[in-house]
Design goal:
The complex is a heterodimer of chains A (about 325) and B (about 325). Chain A folds into two domains: about 230 residues, Rossmann fold, CATH 3.40.50.300; about 55 residues, no CATH class. Helix content of chain A is about 30%, strand content about 25%. The longest helix of chain A has 18 residues. Chain A is globular, with a radius of gyration of 21 Å. In chain B, α5 crosses α7. In chain B, strands 6-7-8-3-9-10-12-11 form an eight-stranded mixed beta sheet, with helices on both faces. Chain B has a four-stranded antiparallel beta sheet with strand order 2-1-4-5, with helices on one face. Chain B is α/β, with parallel strands linked by helices and about 325 residues long. Chain B contains eleven helices and twelve strands. Chain B is about 30% helix and about 25% strand. The longest helix of chain B has 18 residues. Chain B folds into two domains: about 240 residues, 3-Layer(aba) Sandwich (Rossmann fold), CATH 3.40.50.300; about 70 residues, no CATH class. Classes of the chains: A alpha/beta (about 325), B alpha/beta (about 325). Chains A and B meet through α6, α7 and α9 of A and α8, α9, α10 and α11 of B.
Amino acid sequence: MIPEALLEVRNLRVYFPVGACMLKRNKQAVRAVDDVSFAIAAGETLGLVGESGCGKTTLGRATLRLIEPTSGRILFSGEDITYLKSAKLRSLRRNFQIIFQDPYGSLDPRMTVADIIGEALDIHGLAPGRLARRQRVEQLLKDVGLDRSHAERYAHEFSGGQRQRIGIARALAVEPALIVCDEAVSALDVSVQAQIVNLLKDLQNRHGLAYLFIAHDLAIVEHISHRIMVMYLGKMVELGQARTICHEPKHPYTKALVSAVPTLDPSAKRERIVLSGEVPSPIHPPTGCPFHPRCPIAEARCKTEPPALRETTAGHWISCHLA
Amino acid sequence: MPLLEIKDLQLEFENEGRSLRALDGVSLSLDAGETLCLVGESGSGKSVTALSIARLLPNPPAQYRGGQILIDGRDVLKMSARELRSIRGGLVSYIFQEPGTALNPVHRVDRQIKEMLALHRPEAANNVEVIRLLKIVGIPAPESRLRAYPHELSGGMQQRIMIAMALASKPRILVADEPTTALDVTIQAQILELLRELKRQFGMAILLITHNLGIVADLADRAAVMYAGQIVESGPADRLLRNPLHPYTKALIAAIPDLASKAARLKPIPGIVPQLGAWPPGCRFQPRCSQAQPECARQAVELLQVRPKCWVRCPYFDTPTSVSVQV
């Protein structure tokens, strides 16, 4: 889609077998990610929103080959990494890192901060020698707004926001070009969320980082993203500029999602679209358009014909017969 | 007389001889048919305030050190175990954040709701009433859900079952502790719509606990903001969101991205939420406050009534520079 894309994902599918009975021929599968294509340019933030179970975390992890894709291709700076073997993959992993949701579970409680951050440096041989390693760790701590005296402490001595800063420093240690932020601010107190969001933006400006920013909070995603991709039941339903997605959404699911976000401004009390029903099981996705059982404007053909992804205006992709 | 009135509530948790103060002089009131939102970050004391209303906190470790909780003029803190049983789930019903853990996994839906009915309205403990309740909370084909176990239902459905159980006793006060935090945003919209409808239909008073200011704007008549075990501001929800007076309320509103706002950069509140037992001296918010004066750290600040129905715990609330928030 974008010629100079840093990361390009083509027709990615990730299926998980369920009820895996050896004797059964007809294995069922959860279609966690079903035929998703997108690209991220260097220095860009692509927001990824959707409800729980829509496949956004799986997509984020499969993009980094932390989960093996079932089919499709992943190109990093033009190089196909979909089937790279471990040694080659490891050296390439320097270029893409991940920050996790839970700042309590994602840091080893038995390691000091210096070792948590330094481990990545050691693996890639980036700061040989104790002095160089130490200096680099201190530099990284400074980058994320922590003090050098924090280096010898353990994770439990820090608050949630500070731990998330440590997780960010660890990701930055290898000078990546892309960071997947998987609900990176969701577990934080609201007053601290803004600190981390601003830090991520500053780091992007300083280092030219690209982010795949996964979250369920549309307001935060709009704030940080250049473009936003909306997923429903493993499929991409809409992709476009952040402002367009949040203020002039075209897909009926995106419209409902945006209208469901409670907002502070009373004058912006829009017509709220309350969707009936719930997200169907990804084991038995509905025929045709996956959204049709809940869609307020569904027609007969939506039940049988899966809609193709179309580019309606430049850079705005929608998967809907009627939008 | 308000339906519920909490006056100067003091709560401590005792642990290995150490007392940690969790609530320090919390006062609020709730009228019949009114929705009050209690807003605050984790650890501010909003959940323990809510649990105190029916005295649901185990003792020990919870120790009430002072204050009153008056429901219809009767003090909950002085009630006998027998009186408390009629309050709990009767006059005051609760719904919690995680419907999946609040429901009993080994009992079917009908039995769980009938259990509530048997306790509070034994004459109505039958399938007809259960189906009526399930219809009220918007469960499609309720007859077919009677024999379902909680795990067979989605999160949104489970929360509807919880609400049906809470309604079984015809409560006058519904306490909803982050009822939609664990739910997806489209399901959250459904549940908020349901709460609005129930309030209209039955005239219940709702105490809604949330950290989401958007929900406050959506649902609340009045709002109270908590910080470090105290209420720092309370007043009509519109006024509080549109024209906040306390520096913490202002900073909180500025820190949250909103779809309707066009700010290029969020304004975070520096520092972190103080932990239980490590509250700063004087004004609790003073170390993070952009307008703090030297005397803020020296002297505890009282909650002052500054206008009719508007209470603020900050003597400098009307300082003109108050709009700017430190970045």
